[in-house]
Amino acid sequence: xxxxxxxxxxxxxxxxxxxxxxxxxxxxxxxxxxxxxxxxxxxxxxxxxxxxxxxxxxxxxxxxxxxxxxxxxxxxxxxxxxxxxxxxxxxxxxxxxxxxxxxxxxxxxxxxxxxxxxx
Length: 119
Fold this sequence. Notes:
The chain has one domain (26-118). Helix content is 61%, strand content 0%. It is built from 6 helices and no strands. It has helices at 5-14, 29-48, 61-80, 86-93, 100-104, 109-118.
C-alpha cells in the first residue's frame, strides 16, 4: 500500500551516513517531518470525503482512522522539536536549507519568532 511509502522514504533519508555528508544530517529532520505531515494531512482529507456506507467498493474506514493516528503521532514528535533549538540552528546553518523555515513558515510568524528567540 502506498500509504507507508513516505515513512520508508523518510527512514531511508534519515538513516544515511552523516559522516560523509550524505543524508542523516540533523538539518533534514524538520523538512522530513513537514513532508510527512503534509502527506498524511492530504490523505486524511481525501478519506474524510468518503461515505463508507455508500456501496461495497468503498475503502475500509479503518484506513481513515489509522491515517489520523499516524498524522497525530507525527505531529506529536514534530512538536517535540521545539524543546531543542539545535534543530532550528542546524537548519539555518545548513546552506541548502538556510531560508527553509522563513519560506515554509511564512504564514506562521509566531513559529519563526519562537524559533529565532530560542536561537
